Structure formats: C-alpha cells, structure tokens
Request: fold
Amino acid sequence: MEHALSHATLSELRRPRPYPAVSVLTPTHRREPLNAEDRVRLRNVVSEAKKQLEADPSVTRERRADVGGQLDRALAEVDLSHTEDGLAIFAAPGEYQVWSLARPVPERVVLADTFLTRNLVSAQAAGRPFWVLSVSADRVTLWNGGVDRVVEERRGGFPLARRRENFDAERRERVGDMPSAFRDEDTRHFLRDAWTTLGRLLRDNPRPVYVTGEPAALSLLEEFGGVARDAVHVPHGGLAHAAPDAVWQAVRPVLDAQARRDAAAVTRELDSARGHKTFAAGVDELWRNAREGRIRLLAVEENYRITVRDDGDHLIPAESGDLDAREDIVDEIVEQCLETGAAVRFLPDGTLGDADGIAGVLRY
Reply:
C-alpha cells in the first residue's frame, strides 16, 4: 500500500486515463473493535464499483473485465492490519493502486477519466509529513514521518553505509579512544555525500527535516549548508541503526513543541486578520473564496467534518446520504487552497473557537 504522496506522484495520479478510471474510498480503523467490520465494508464497496461498471453502457466487456480484475488485485493487496483512517483504491485499464490515508474519508465510488485525488491531498496536508535523517559515522538512514510514526525510507540512495574493519566510531568516541570520528576526512566525505543526496530528494519532495546524531555530527552537517540548512537538529546518537519506534520517541517531543508554536502563530495571524477585515470562516464563505483563489492561509481543526449540499447560491448543511450531499467538502476546500498556493494548517480541535472548525486569512 502507498503512503507518501509526492508532487510527481500526484501529477501522475491526475493524468487522464482511458474511461473508466475507478476511485473507491472507504473509511478504516486502526484498532479493535472498530476495525472488525472493515473487511466486510471494503468488499461491499468494491462490489458496488463492479456493479456500476456492469451498469455503465459506455464500458465495453473487455474494459469491464480488465478494470474488474484490477479491483480484485487491489483488494488482495490490502493489509487491514496496517491501515490508518481511510483507504483509497484506484483502478483503470492495466493498472491499480492502493493508498492508506491518515485521515477519514467518506465511502464512495466514482467512475471518471481521472482518479479522485482530493482526499489524498487533504490527508497529506493533515499528516504534516516530515523527514528524519539519522546520521552516524558509518550509516545514514532516512525516515518518512507522519501523524504517529516513522518508517524507514529506502529510496533516493538511502540508506547510505560504509564498511571499515574494527569500526565503531560512536563507541570509540564514548570510551575516549579518539577525539571525534567526525574529524576524519573519510567521514566528512561520507556525510557530505549523504547531505547532497538529501538535497536532491528535497527538491522533489520538500518537507521539514529533522536530523538526529551525535553533537559532533550535527556540527559538521551545519557547516555544509545547502537545501537542508533549515533542518531541526535533535542531538541523539545511535538512531541510524535503531528501530522506527526509537526514532519516533526521540523526535516526538520536538514535533509536539513545533506543533504548539505553529498553532500559536496561526492563531495570531487569524486574530490579526479580523482587525484587517481579511478574516473568513465557515465552509460556505471559504468555499467561495477558495474557488476565487483569495485564501492565503487556511486553518482547519483536525477532526472537523461537515456534510453540505449546494442550493445554487450557498452551501447549506445536509445529512449523509441526502441527494447531492457533499461529505468531503472540507477536503475539497483544502485541495483548492493548495492548488492556488495557500498555506494549509491543521490544528487541534477547539483551537478556532467560534470560527466553527475552519477559518482563513484572505489575500484581499
């Protein structure tokens, strides 16, 4: 299953496909007992997708068989023991993808000539993805970070490793056998190569970067500068060889502190916008401004959801299952804001007070 959404991947997902490109969305659950019915729900929604294929007169028998087979292969790939809060299956002639999302999605099936990506985009923004680079004198490991975990990222040349006989630089430094392995010229070249490799990755996949390592290693990286010069340093050695949970526990306090600072900064911007009459709140007002590209900053409480329908002039509250109900309007607004260059920030529930879960700062 896929988790990380890069700019290149998103562009590929949005590429027009031969009809039908099928998007299947379903909520999932991380823990028992709520996840007990996820398997049945998933089978049912895939069955609904096949029924829609059968009922569509514009889908040939060959296309129906092809896409139906892709849906079956996607269903077989799903590992519900490692799901998050939502699941997206994309199937088209000759291809399928399965995405696990760290944000709930409405259950739905869409047949079109492109895949439905707004829920992926919103989940990516809500997950506040980041990179962790764990460095030592003999290994550099890259970790892909999200809402509540990190996983090792094996791409772009990572992990980097080198071998030397009787080489345990960090142990030798701790016991005093050497002043610092990071003054060694070979080690400097090794870490500079790792820093350059990270820079190439960030050009295509920009995210905040946290670097863990011995203080001597962090000081050396600071000298290199480059695209990762704004990385946050976490002075904690030994994590280049560690398990994911150890890395998560080391960076979590830093992430939590940064999240608090970010929330406070967003709150100050919203308060300032009220005084300058550039403040907007509520899905109806924000949806209209998002479509016009007027939103500079969008703030959304993490679990804010609302179902609406369009009465022609405004979005009005609706019930799930109502005719023309739009259950993922918040994700629509998030995607539209990101498309027009707005900053999007997800905040703890209750942060926005009387703004009712969603607010923004207008450009004009």
